[in-house]
Amino acid sequence: MGRSPCCEKAHTNKGAWTKEEDDRLIAYIRAHGEGCWRSLPKAAGLLRCGKSCRLRWINYLRPDLKRGNFTEEEDELIIKLHSLLGNKWSLIAGRLPGRTDNEIKNYWNTHIRRKLLSRGIDPSTHRPLNDTNSAQINNNNNNQEATTISFASSVKQELDSNNQKEGKRSSGSGVVVEVTEERCPDLNLELTISPPHQEAEDNQALLMKHNGERRSLCFACSLGLQNSKDCSCGIVGSVINGGTSSSSGSGYDFLGLKSAVLDYRSLEMK
DNA sequence: AACGGTTCCAACCGCCCGCTA
DNA sequence: ATAGCGGGCGGTTGGAACCGT
User: Fold this and answer.
1) Which of A78, A113, A244, A260 holds its CA 20 to 30 A away from the CA of A101?
2) Global pTM?
């Protein structure tokens, strides 16, 4: 079908934003909130395309943005999430508070790609550059990974089932769960279910129930990497894997799969 | 200081998807 | 069922900043 242009190109500014334009955009959004980007430029007195305003706000002006260098932990998380999700930058950004999809995309292309190449890893497949035995390598996974893979398969079946019921496509913006089975077995699949703050609250409640006291989660656990080597608190994984919520058999209700329809779109935080 | 090559990232572009009439 | 619209996404680009000679 034909499409009208998103804005009147002839009368819009392009290129770098001026301080005055930034101020106008910030003032307008503070007063009226986000949304209706097409009409925003006119209402705010900006000679900009609505899309351009949205990008400027989301990628640069938003007050909750975290500026500055990426930490080593963020690096590793991005690599793990990329191995799971591929170039779904918005989904990856959803797991990194204060980071934007554009920022992560740029960082990936400029730093992490090179970092992985220097490690001898193909950035697109996350496998060794000269790897010809990945299947064999996968067969050597430990028991924990096997459990996770089994669980991932369960999730995938559930998703497929739901998608079939609803007549939905299994690709497109949806997360491809089977990738997890092969590439990133230690990444908590809960990341596909709920927003981070909710997850953190749930984990905290779980800890309090288990220990009878309030304890803080380490950075890795707060990001859903309970099985990661980066986990410094070392308690959530033990609770989840050995306690109230087994990841095998019928015990994966901690993800809400028994009681709720899984919704890929809940990944999208923005 | 001047120059050329490289890196980095803000911004743009075109396409896709969901919603609505 | 279909067309149109608005919003969002991933890929790409242009130019500023940086670096080495």
Assistant:
1) A260
2) 0.61
